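W.,

You were right to be curious about this one. When I first looked at the sequence I had no strong expectations either way, so I just let the prediction run and decided to look at it fresh. Below is the sequence, 185 residues in total, followed by the output.
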Amino acid sequence: MNKTDIRRAIRARKALLSDPDRRRAAEAVFSALERTAAFLLADRILVYASLPDELSTREFLHKWSGRKRFFLPRVNGVNLELLPYEQTALHLGAFQIEEPDGNELIDPQTIDLIIVPAVALDRNCNRLGRGKGFYDRLLRDLRATTIGVGYDFQLITDGIPVDPHDVQLDFVITESHLHRRSPSL
């Protein structure tokens, strides 16, 4: 399947999910994430503000915001800016995604862990996004650990088509799978 076909198939599967299924999946994925060394050792974490069809980050942010320092992305042209997360200082920004208010931009190089949303993922830790390249541009030169999260059905067993600009993740976590990128030989 090509990227367009994968996006269409995943969108159709997401439309069939019930609210309890969505909650159970988010709980399972973020519970697995919380047990990783990458999360336990991280202090500064970039996380996404979830759209209705994505694994919800709301409970995760609420649970850990007193113990970890969270940051959210904000769209600026074709790039993402990173700002501190404050639950009461959000507005709907580009693409109807909640974004932080303010001007306290932080250096992406200071982030320890990045939790990345995806349309699809594979066992080689490749990620297919919505097609605008925001995360690929952000992740290209960062040293932070990257973890892609999604529903089990977002894990494409045949692999995702990869282009030269696509950035491979360090880990992929779904409800019942955790995959780590194989070290380069």
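Here's what jumped out at me. The mean pLDDT is 93. And, maybe more interesting for your project: Helices lie at 3-15, 19-34, 37-41, 58-64, 134-139.

Coffee later to discuss?

I.
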